[in-house]
Design goal:
One of its GO terms (molecular function) is N-acyltransferase activity. This protein is an alpha+beta fold. It is built from five helices and seven strands, in the order βααβββαβαββα. Helix 1 crosses helix 2. It is globular. The relative contact order is 0.14.
C-alpha cells in the first residue's frame, strides 16, 4: 500500500475476542447495508461463531498498521449467500467487506481496503473470480467495485434485499488495478 495509507494485513476473526469490536462496527449507522443495526452483542457473537465454524464461510479482521480497521468475509457462493441464485463457476469465491467507522477518515483508505481484500482472495491460486451481491442502493460500494474491476452481471432478489450481482476475474482485477503485487 502507499505510504499515505500504511500497511494493511488480514488475520482470522475470533468470534469470542472480536465480537465486541465487530459489534461496534456492524451496528454503526454507516454500516446500514450490513443489516445488523439492531444486533445485540450476543447476536454478533452468535453470527460470527456460525460463520467461523461453517465449512464454506470465513471471517477476518483487517488491520491498518496493526490496528483493527475492517471486516472481511469469504464464502463459497455455490453453498452460502448465492446458492441457487446464480450459476456458480469453478474458481468462484464470494466476498463481503466493511470498513470500520472512524472520526479521522483517510483519503483513499476504502479503495486500499477493497484492493487488499481482492489481493488476499486472489492469493489463493484456485480463485479465478470474486462474486459479490451488494444492495442495489449501495452506490458507494458499486463505485468501489467498479474501481477494482467488478462487472455487473444482473440484479437478483435475495430474501433480505435486491442485490446487484457482480463479478471480477483475476485478469480483470490485474488489468484494472495494475496487478497483484
Amino acid at each position: 500500500m502507499s505510504r499515505t495509507i500504511g500497511t494493511l494485513t488480514i488475520r482470522p476473526l475470533d468470534p469470542l475476542t472480536d465480537a465486541e469490536l465487530v459489534h461496534g462496527w456492524v451496528t454503526h449507522p454507516k454500516a446500514s447495508f450490513w443489516m445488523m443495526g439492531d444486533a445485540r452483542l450476543e447476536d454478533v457473537e452468535r453470527e460470527y461463531m456460525a460463520i467461523t465454524s461453517h465449512p464454506h464461510h470465513d471471517a477476518f479482521i483487517g488491520l491498518h498498521d496493526g490496528e483493527p480497521a475492517f471486516l472481511m468475509e469469504r464464502y463459497d457462493p455455490a453453498e452460502v449467500e448465492l446458492k441457487g441464485l446464480y450459476e456458480a463457476e469453478p474458481g468462484d469465491i464470494g466476498m463481503h467487506f466493511l470498513v470500520a467507522p472512524t472520526d479521522t477518515p483517510l483519503h483513499g483508505f476504502t479503495l486500499a481496503v477493497i484492493t487488499a481484500v481482492m489481493k488476499e482472495l486472489f492469493a489463493d491460486p484456485s480463485v479465478l473470480r470474486v462474486v459479490v451481491e451488494p444492495d442495489v442502493r449501495n452506490d458507494a460500494v458499486h463505485a468501489l467495485n467498479k474501481a477494482v474491476g467488478f462487472e455487473v452481471l444482473r440484479e437478483i432478489t435475495k430474501p433480505e434485499k435486491t442485490a446487484l450481482l457482480s463479478a471480477c476475474t483475476r485478469e480483470r482485477f490485474q488489468a484494472t488495478t495494475g496487478g497483484l503485487s
